[in-house]
Amino acid sequence: MALRSLYKCRVLLSKQLIEKKLLVTIPKQVQKYTTSTSPLLKKEEIHVTFIKPDGEKIKVKANIGDNLLDVVVNHDLDFDGYGACEGTLTCSTCHVILKQEDYDKVPDKPTEDEMDMLDLAFELTDTSRLGCQVVLTKEMDGIEVKVPATINDVRNSR
Ligand code: FES
Predict the structure, then answer these.
(1) Which ligand 1 atom sits nearest the alpha carbon of residue 82?
(2) Assigned CATH for 42-153
(3) Distance in Å, CA 106 to ligand 1 centroid
(4) How far is the CA of 80 from the centre of ligand 1 (A)?
(5) pTM for this structure?
(6) Which of 1, 68, 91, 127 could hold 103 in an S-S bridge, CB 3.0 to 4.6 Å?
(7) What angle do CA 75, 77, 79 make, to 5 degrees?
């Protein structure tokens, strides 16, 4: 009985809201043409292979638009101390080494701030980058990312 009264109240309230144009209903004919937006929101993925200091390779799927730190976090990869400043460009623990051909595929070249931080990283090479600054693009599918054996958390040396 109470449920029926509640239902009637709800119907009455809906009618009043529709009359006052505060509530819009979608006709059934239109509803069948309505689609979910989830396919549009699905991110495109590429493959990234991380190479640990001991040579172990870890191949993962990664979303285009994510940076390499996001990929490490999203896959819960166990790289000791990696990404300590969470991408705020203040630690250099996300130092990675790319093959020259992969380095060239990264559209955004290092900024002055990234170069300054890279200068403080251990095992620096000409193709070093900070993972938190490397944003993935479709063209980077299949890149290999070497994680150095040693890291330098610059924040500890200040
Ligand atoms: S995570 Fe600290 S500089 Fe990239």
Answers:
(1) 1
(2) 3.10.20.30
(3) 17
(4) 13
(5) 0.73
(6) 127
(7) 155
